[in-house]
Amino acid sequence: MPTVKKSNGVGRVFLIGFSGSGKSTVGPLLAQKLGYSFIDTDESVARKERMSIPEIFAEKGERYFRRLEEAAIRAAVAKSRRAVISLGGGALLRSNVRRLVQQEGTVVYLSCSAREVHRRLQTATDRPLLLNKGPRSERIAALVTARRPIYVRVADVIVSTTRHTPKVVAATIISKLGRLADAH
Description:
This protein is of the alpha/beta class. The chain is 55% helix and 12% strand. It has a 5-stranded parallel beta sheet with strand order 2-3-1-4-5, sandwiched between helices. Helix 2 packs across helix 4 and helix 6 crosses helix 7. The longest helix has 19 residues. The chain is globular, with a radius of gyration of 16 Å.
């Protein structure tokens, strides 16, 4: 059950969704509006390892990265009760992470169409799972389709970012969080 108490606000907010869905853009805006800190777990991992995410994938592999990612999420949870925490697109592939975020906060899924993700990531070179694996649009569509059920199952709140500005998305999240808090 998510941590949502009207008297204490919303508590931790975990942003989940596919790469390019807007987590790193919406997250700081949302955190500012809530008066929370913002933690991007991908940035935390890269800073700690002193390597980019693609370098970690290339040199040490995805399994190693996923362990670092989980440790970064646990550290973010330990650090603050009032934070917006952006998770990497594949973080929820680990059942430990799914349980952790559901127990420790409110999970917001930033949903975005595969077509829009492709448009946003057309020139991105920092997404290791999209590099050198066939046509990018097909890879994105396959990954979005595979991950969507996981995101939906874990989410307390779902907000589409496909045709909305980051400011509108942040305002929509705040509205939905308020209704969620009122319901508890």
